[in-house]
Amino acid sequence: MPDDQTQLSFSQRMGLVPAVKAAQVDSIDAPLKNALWNVVLLHSLSGFYSREARYPDRIKTSYFYDFAVAIYGDFFKVPVDTLPSGWSTFKERIRENYFKMSWHRTYSFLEFLVALNHREKGEELTQGFNTVLVRENSAYRFVSGKVTPITSIEEIEEIEQAISVSDQYAGVKTHLNTALGLLTDRQNPDYRNSMKESISAVEALAKHLTGNPKATLGEALTELERRHRLDPVIKKAFSTLYGYTNNSDGIRHAVMEDKQVLTKADARFMLICCSAFINLTIDSVEN
Questions:
Q1: Domain match, 158 and 281 both
Q2: Is residue 263, in this structure, part of any structural domain at all?
Q3: Is position 14 within any domain?
Q4: Which residues are CB-contacts of 183 (< 8 A; sequence separation ≥ 6)?
Q5: SS percent in the chain: helix, strand, coil, step 5
Q6: 47 alpha carbon, distance to own chain's centre
Q7: I want to staple 143 with a disulfide (CB 3.0 to 4.6 A). Which of 47, 53, 148, 167 is the partner?
Q8: 157 and 277 in one domain?
Q9: Residues 6 or more apart whose Cβ sits within 8 Å of residue 278
Q10: pLDDT at position 60, please?
Q11: Which helix (H) or strand (E) holds 148?
Q12: Which stretches in the chain have pLDDT values below 70?
């Protein structure tokens, strides 16, 4: 079945079904649910074999035992002594539970599988899930192992690149990953602290590049401008942004009853903006 969405079907050309589905924000329709399950089957639940030829379906003597225990005990939170002895039965139970999950629980399950990285399949799972999410017009994508409400490919790439290139800079990657986690937590999102972590990532990078761990971000930006030809306009923009986070209404201060509530859009903007700054800064320093 071709994935090229520029090739409209007969039904779409005749106007009998929509050419483009509405973005799926708080739901997962049947085609999306089925397609995500197919990725799980292909990359997580395939390739099973037992080390005992006489019992080819036995989980306990297979390389899938720890994987099955993790799903039962850590995701579904059920006693592991209820784990079935046979792989076929286990797989059927997982399938049954999967198709009963709410839309947000489904995404939590997919995140769990990616994080397990069973048989080093985390990256393949991520790629497969994102292909499906794009094709079925989901409002979410996997970014650094997290299901993230960012639909622009440019935004996704900006964040992923910042996390990837910041390995060598102490604290930067940790701050970015924490910001992403707080933003994408579907049960208890913390937008204020996500924004704090995003700006802290910029602060940590600037201090590292100037070699002064006690410098304020403003001082670090001035030093970056002098030593690494940081564009004055960009310096001014981030100085203003940093000033906002520290003023009486800023995100680094305690929330008062009459203060404006921060939203997902605020936290997403801060993460994307700070990721872009980190990418630009590292690129300008290393080239």
A1: yes
A2: yes
A3: no
A4: 148, 189, 191, 194, 264, 267, 268, 271
A5: 60, 5, 35
A6: 27
A7: 148
A8: yes
A9: 162, 165, 166, 172, 176, 201, 202, 205
A10: 92
A11: strand 146-148
A12: 1-23, 150-152, 186, 246-260, 286-287
How is residue 269 written in tokens?
């903007």
Q: What's the distance, Cα to Cα, between the start and end of the chain in Å?
A: 44
Q: Rounded distance, CA 87 to CA 90, Å?
A: 5
Q: Which long-range contacts (CB under 8 A, 24 or more apart) does 3-11 make?
A: 3/131, 3/135, 5/135
Matching residue, tokens 């639940």: 45
Which of 264, 237, 238, 40 minimizes the C-alpha distance to 151?
264
Q: Is the pTM of this model over 0.70?
A: no
Say if residue 133 is in the same domain as residue 86.
yes
Together in a domain, 166 and 200: yes
Clarify whether residues 84 and 168 are in a common domain.
Answer: no
Task: Tell me the one-letter amino acid at 184.
Answer: T
Look at residue 287 in the predicted model and tell me its pLDDT: 60
Instruction: Report CA torsion sign: 75, 78, 81, 84.
Output: negative
Domain's final residue, options 139, 168, 194: 139
